[in-house]
Amino acid sequence: MDVTRLAASICEAAELLASQPAIDLVQRAELSRACEKLYAIVEQPSSRLEKATVGITPIVAVRIAIDMGIFDFVHHSPKKEFNSDEIATRAGADPLLVCRILRSLTASGIFNVTPAGTYKPDIVVKDLAEGGYLASRIMMNLSPENAYAGPFQYVFGTEEHYFDWMTSHPSQLDAFNRTMQAGVIRDNAARWTQIFPVAQRFQQFLGANSPVDKGIQLVDIGGGIGHEIKILLDTLPCLRGHFVLQDVPGVIQSMLPELKTITAATRTLQAMPCSFFDPQPVIGADIYFLGRVLHDWPDAQARSILQHTRNAMGKDSLLLIHDRVLPDGPEKVHLSDTIMDFNMMALCSSLERTETQFRDLLISVGLDLVRVWRPSTAGLHRQAVLEAVRADSPDDG
Ligand SMILES: C[S@@+](CC[C@H](N)C(=O)[O-])C[C@H]1O[C@@H](n2cnc3c(N)ncnc32)[C@H](O)[C@@H]1O
Q1: Spatial separation of the C-alpha atoms in residues 286 and 140, rounded to whole Å
Q2: Which of 157, 333, 378, 385 sits in a 20 to 30 Å window from 260, CA-based?
Q3: Which residues lie with the beta carbon below 6 Å from any ligand 1 atom?
Q4: Whole-angstrom Cα distance, residue 148 to residue 121?
Q5: Prediction pTM value
Q6: What is the residue with the minimal CA distance to atom 27 of ligand 1?
Q7: Closest-lying ligand 1 atom to the alpha carbon of residue 275
Q8: Which atom in ligand 1 lies closest to the alpha carbon of residue 276?
Q9: pLDDT tens, position by position, 81-104
């Protein structure tokens, strides 16, 4: 079957339908059933699971928007289109939070983004505006950015960060570590080794017989139980070098058993309990790797992690950041992206960042973003690998 042609005809049919006069309820039901059948076949199992487990976040976005009066404003305004900043000003709310909410509402079909980049409300907005049968109020007008006093701490009645709290809740920590490992095992295309061309870029370190000291030195910061290092070693069985796995002590002690046996002549592995909020002890490594770490932290802490890494980097060191990178255009943001963004907001007072937000963060600590690697199945995955070097590196520019 020619899937590309099939996808093109489905899009054509959708455009044709959109240009038709209104279809009646019976036709709508018939078409909805057909679409659901198609979607049930093509949807990724991981996406089904995501909706069933953390899929509540679009509802949270609607509730916050009701409270901010966003629907009242756009419904009663004589204007038909709005930009994010004017909605934020009108709502008296943090522009970043309003931008995150509008992205989620767009992914839920409550707003559409025009070619000019403005937001156009859908007809359902009238039911969410004052007097509408779905309008009711909660309180929130700032994107949480205090990592130690956000929604998680409020709900669990604690002053600890989510990661600190987990160390005294071992079953939660174990579940978290297994979730992190499952994410990269389940989804081949989301693995960093599939996105960043490891074989080509680490070519000089490949070879079965050369000693460790001629190999790569790679530091996996906040590397969990070592699954990201394991994926690299499995992908490149001839990669030689010294691999350092860093995380908090409670996680390091759960390191994958198969990594514990690596002490060959061509490969060594060092498990190093240490905090990324302390100075980085490994100086001048070839590669510093930050896998899905920065999205756990708001800008203040993310900057501190990057600054410590930057201070340890040599002029030839490379920083690789594996994280979800959202498109800057809100109309391109998937529902799944907004679910994860709100998940990060709730658990860690943090956020999923756009490429521009990553670039700005890197520049603020003296690092330059050299390239963003995206998976070949672009559109389905937002995982990307960002490649950064010291701003004063000879390779920069
Ligand atoms: C989202 S997980 C990512 C794990 C792994 N890099 C991956 O991509 O699957 C974030 C990791 O950061 C670790 N972490 C949290 N606070 C830390 C700290 N202060 N220092 C070092 N690691 C920390 C957690 O234990 C966890 O393993």
Answers
A1: 44
A2: 385
A3: 163, 180, 222-224, 228, 247-248, 251, 275-277, 291-293, 296
A4: 35
A5: 0.80
A6: 224
A7: 20
A8: 20
A9: 999 999 999 999 999 999 999 999
